[in-house]
Specification:
Two copies of one chain form a homodimer.
Chain A: H1 3-17, E1 31-37, E2 43-49, H2 51-60, E3 64-67, E4 72-75, E5 84-91, E6 97-104, E7 121-125, E8 131-135, H3 143-146
Parallel strand pairs in A: 1-6
Antiparallel strand pairs in A: 1-2, 3-4, 5-6, 7-8
């Protein structure tokens, strides 16, 4: 085995098996965050974090993300009151994604449509054989009255 | 409200509230897939799907992804035997991410390191105040004997 192969293997081992937090941010400086309900692991939303958002989340225990649409730091729930208190953060093998286990304040709703989870529709196969979407949860708050600046 | 604003609102409503599956693939033709254990919702891995992978998954009930590292279609578990049978697929509000609820065959291990989940390390804050990683699960198979072509 060559020296460079050994070095690559050492780096891979450190990334995957080590105790050092070394997030692999993408070209936009982001990692992906999967947000789950700490009570039952239900997936609530998908978001992104830059280094600042991750640090703020670790320091405060309140979830912060990077909003790609607004291009700004995003304290989730600041407008709606549905803040996320973080019980645990886990990182994956290659350190480019995290899972946050959170408890949601306010209406217990994470989606901007007012629903508990952003994943409120399942893909079902209709009689025609082509897939369609079926919603199985209702809004817990009225977005029109909460997001008045949109 | 202008005609173009109305049209944008109609498109947003169709995307978020409609029954039509219209995935918003990114510049690389991909959406993000969060893979969870159908038994307890534990997040197992994060992956990506192109249109072909999504169609194959819907048609066969076995999870297919797009491997960004190998730049090829990826029938998850084809080498290791840890195939994923899909119980349910859900899509998020803006249709750029899906959640797959799966049952894993073989060793019940999803991570290429041999562990059940790719998220086998939690971020903890040590005495020094700086975060470090703590693994809390062990490999269920030996990657060195399973992935012999690497």
């Amino acid at each position: 085995m060559t020296t460079s192969t050994n070095a690559a293997n050492d780096a891979k081992a450190a990334l995957e098996e080590g105790a050092a937090l070394t997030p692999r941010y993408d070209a936009n400086g982001l990692i992906t965050a999967v947000v789950t309900d700490a009570r039952d692991n239900e997936v609530l939303m998908l978001a992104h974090m830059n280094a600042q958002a991750l640090k703020l989340t670790l320091d405060t225990g309140i979830a912060h993300y990077w909003s790609r649409s607004r291009n700004s730091l995003w304290k989730k729930g600041e407008t709606s009151g549905n803040l996320q208190t973080v019980d645990e953060i886990r990182i994956d093998c290659d350190q480019d994604a995290v899972v946050l286990k959170v408890r949601v304040s306010g209406a217990d709703a994470t989606c901007h449509t007012g629903r508990k989870s952003c994943f409120y529709r399942k893909i079902v196969t209709g009689n025609s054989g082509s897939p369609r979407l079926e919603a199985d949860s209702e809004p817990l708050f009225d977005p029109a009255t909460v997001y008045t600046d949109h």
